[in-house]
Fold these 2 entries.
Entry 1:
Amino acid sequence: MEILFSILFALLGTAVGSFLNVCIDRLPIGKSLVYPPSHCDSCQHRLSVKDLVPVFSYLWLRGRCRYCRAPISRRTFWVEVGSGLLFACLYLYYGLSIELAVSAFYSSLFIVLGLIDLEHKLILNKIVYPMAGVALIISIFLPQPGIISLPWPAAVNGVIGGAIGFILLLIPALIFPRGMGWGDVKMAALIGLVSGFPLVFVALFLGIVLGGVVASILLLLKIKRRKEYIPFGPFLSLATIATLLWGSDVLNWYLGLF
Ligand SMILES: [Zn+2]
């Protein structure tokens, strides 16, 4: 039964991933998410149902438009595959629960934020602000994923986490304004709202380590030059998704060391 549900959630994840691709393509250029319907950006041909089957259409068409053979971005495929795997993992971790729905929603949000930052070097206020409101409402009514029992309500915990996230990245942003932008600070506050105290520390610490290691490798291999800007949002996103999955395990392991 568990296998069946894992496959089901993987399929659901690929379908959600397909919608996330639409968000990543359209939100930064201010286009509506629903209109016009899916079409090829090269030949404008409207895509039919058989062109829109997640993962399989891309493989079947070998990554090209059916009508004009223009290449389809590889990111579309990897977001669908990635979301599918992620949803299966979230199901295996949380089981059929409200936490599963909440963590799947947040993971989707951070996939969109991280990839838009990777492609456009932008963290969009029009995503961060409304989602901060949504995260606050969720924390009032629904359990926060992976949260450890605390003496105060989850909403208070979300606000504490948000404040911690904001302050933790505000300091480096003030000291190194070239390396970190306001977008990163706002995103850190959102991460805090979503993950709460104390998991906000796990998410930001993971993000900073991940970003530091990858940036060093890119500089060492001369893929990036020293003055080139490397967006931090993708690392924060990856770290937050990892924290939604294993944050409390990491924290318990770390606290167990003392
Ligand atoms: Zn085309």
Entry 2:
Amino acid sequence: MKMLEIKYKCLHPSCIVNCRDGVIAMPEEHFNVLKGHYADETTFRSPKGLCRLGFNQAYKAVAIIAEADFADAAHGHEHEGCGHDPMGLLSADHQVILKKLDEIEQQIKMRDSGTLWRTTTELENIIMLHSIHKEEDTLFPFLLDLPIGDGLVSIIKEDHRELVTLMHSFRTGLAESRILDGLGMSIIVCLRSHIRKEDNEFFKLIDKLLDHDLRTRILAGFKKAEDAFVPIVADENTREQLKKEALAMKRDEMDDAIAAALEETRSSLSGCCH
Ligand SMILES: [Fe+2]
Ligand SMILES: [Fe+2]
């Protein structure tokens, strides 16, 4: 039986739950049955239980690799277009984040707080799954046995802490229909710099050190993180919760927290975020 590993993307236009893309493995025969539902050779019906909403969604196969090809892929350093590529998957997440940042930048300019509430909820979900659960909780423990300095990992973690703080402060403002422009732009600049740093330096360094077994274990960890992730929803409950937090904090304390977050970003931009 030939197994296929498939990197997929859900074609549902507006769903924001965490099964919208990922990697799955299945027998080739099963894949042939699922893609038989569509005329297009690369579109297939989602396997039972994969869609978090419980539907049979149309999934696009972005990359397919047969099990027999896995070993070849692990020997080279070039894994582009190959499904057995954990760093490639993280970089693919980055492209989704960059697209979302472009949308948010436009919405800040348009003063569209309602749409910003939705798009920043989506961004927060992507960041929590990607940066915290995939990078920090899954990938970083594997790096302990590799010759990578602690310093670089600490810098990446520090960036994550700052980004999560900035996002939280920005969204607390949005819950009260306040668009904190400076904070929003800090998130955009810092996140773009962080992604450049990971794609151009950090991931390249790691990719050279991963063997086939490690790649397999990291990919399995990513899948587990995706399966376990519970996204926040852009509804009134979430908004009310953030409003309560803002009320619990005195207004001047809130402004101090935002100023401190901005100051941290400024210093990181002159240091680690570039
Ligand atoms: Fe990342
Ligand atoms: Fe990161």
